[in-house]
């Protein structure tokens, strides 16, 4: 009998899992709160083991065709003077064919590969779970063999099954905000970074996008952000460079959240299992959220195809735990380098970056800085779950 699986969340983790499960003969339903696939989004990296996952899906060439093509990265001072520059791949820690792509572009590729084979229910969400029976917000009730929570950091599935968010979501003490803004600086596939004490601002332009993206990362002891725009503006009131103009250009698509990690003793209970950020968010500062989603989906699908859900869940955790631990360690370490604590630290950092820009072999120096990221991205040997056809789920790819 065909096993029925419900996936909550049509993001990277959920759509990747849907792809692999369909290949193994599961009947898959994906429920997504948003009314349609989310477009746009920030840029994400696919590196290490995650590259192997998309290669096995036959998506690597299409991903590279949609790469952001950001070519240069620059650090600027309060006057806009470029005090340091480097190749964007070096700045982003990319090597060995690693790919950078907008999250929305990757999501569309995954949806294109699954939409004709998988049932998607947009504009709906899980309201309750009782053993394997799920009631959706729309009132639809259905019984499934497995329910997967791939619904992100603030997972409703996790809350219904394991308890309140505060027990598992750990605030790292920083906030992140990302928004599309007019490209008034006229940058062309470049990334500019301005660093102030406790606050960092980035602006970048990607291929095929007339606007730019602005990203703000700042340290804060606050746990209450009732008015997110006001909190962001208050955090950056005395900043120089283009920051005031960027804050004035904020649009309704502003993404704002705490930098958090999810830490759980178990990712499964009964017929419910968690995947991606819902289970083991490493925070955007890790640079590995997309990698964890892709690899986790591949492993979970492979284990479900070869055993009962109880055994599959246990094997999924056994395979993924060391990989998750290595990648979660990156978040707290990286954010301290991204957001400097004092004016003195900023001055020293700017001086060192300016000096490094003139030094021979700077790429080797930065490669050593990025070495922990690459070790973590490759800290798993992907199991071979069989040789099902790579085109078994071959819906349109765009």
TrEMBL record:
Protein name in UniProt: FAD-dependent oxidoreductase
Residue ranges crossing the lipid bilayer per the database entry: none
Pfam families: FAD_binding_3
Domain FAD-binding: residue ranges: 4-312
InterPro entries listed in its UniProt record: FAD-bd (IPR002938), FAD/NAD-bd_sf (IPR036188), FAD_aromatic-hydroxylase (IPR051704)
Recorded GO MF terms: FAD binding
Species this chain originates from: Virgisporangium aliadipatigenens
The organism's place on the tree of life at top rank: Bacteria
């Amino acid at each position: 009998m065909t096993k029925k699986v419900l996936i909550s969340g049509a993001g990277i983790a959920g759509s990747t899992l849907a792809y692999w499960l369909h290949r193994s003969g599961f009947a898959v339903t994906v429920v997504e709160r948003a009314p349609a696939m989310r477009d746009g989004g920030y840029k994400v990296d696919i590196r290490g083991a995650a590259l192997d996952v998309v290669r096995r899906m036959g998506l690597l060439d299409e991903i590279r065709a949609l790469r952001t093509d950001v070519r240069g990265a620059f650090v600027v001072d309060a006057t806009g003077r470029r005090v340091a520059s480097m190749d964007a791949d070096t700045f982003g820690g990319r090597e060995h064919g690693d790919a950078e792509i907008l999250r929305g572009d990757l999501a569309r590729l995954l949806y294109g590969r699954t939409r004709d084979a998988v049932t998607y229910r947009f504009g709906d969400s899980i309201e309750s779970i009782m053993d394997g029976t799920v009631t959706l917000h729309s009132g639809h009730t259905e019984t499934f063999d497995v329910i997967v929570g791939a619904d992100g950091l603030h997972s409703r599935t996790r809350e219904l099954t394991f308890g309140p968010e505060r027990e598992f979501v750990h605030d790292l003490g920083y906030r992140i905000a990302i928004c599309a803004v007019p490209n008034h600086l006229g940058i062309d596939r470049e990334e500019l970074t301005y660093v102030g004490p406790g606050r960092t601002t980035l602006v970048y332009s990607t291929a095929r996008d007339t606007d730019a993206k602005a990203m703000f990362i700042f340290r804060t002891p606050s746990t209450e952000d009732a008015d997110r725009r006001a909190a962001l503006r208050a955090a950056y009131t005395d900043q120089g460079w283009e920051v005031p103009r960027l804050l004035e250009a904020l649009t309704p698509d502003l993404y704002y959240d705490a930098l958090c990690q999810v830490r759980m003793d178990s990712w499964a209970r009964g017929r419910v299992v968690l995947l991606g950020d819902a289970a083991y968010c490493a925070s955007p500062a890790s640079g590995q959220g997309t990698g964890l989603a892709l690899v986790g989906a591949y492993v979970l699908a492979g284990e479900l195809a070869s055993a009962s859900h109880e055994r599959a869940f246990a094997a999924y955790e056994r395979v993924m735990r060391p990989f998750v631990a290595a990648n979660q360690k990156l978040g707290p370490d990286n954010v301290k380098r991204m957001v400097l604590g004092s004016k003195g630290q900023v001055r020293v950092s700017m001086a060192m970056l300016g000096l490094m820009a003139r030094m021979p072999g700077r790429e080797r120096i930065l490669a050593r800085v990025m070495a922990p990221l690459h070790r973590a991205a490759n800290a798993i040997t992907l199991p071979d779950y069989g040789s099902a056809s790579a085109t078994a789920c071959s819906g349109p790819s765009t």
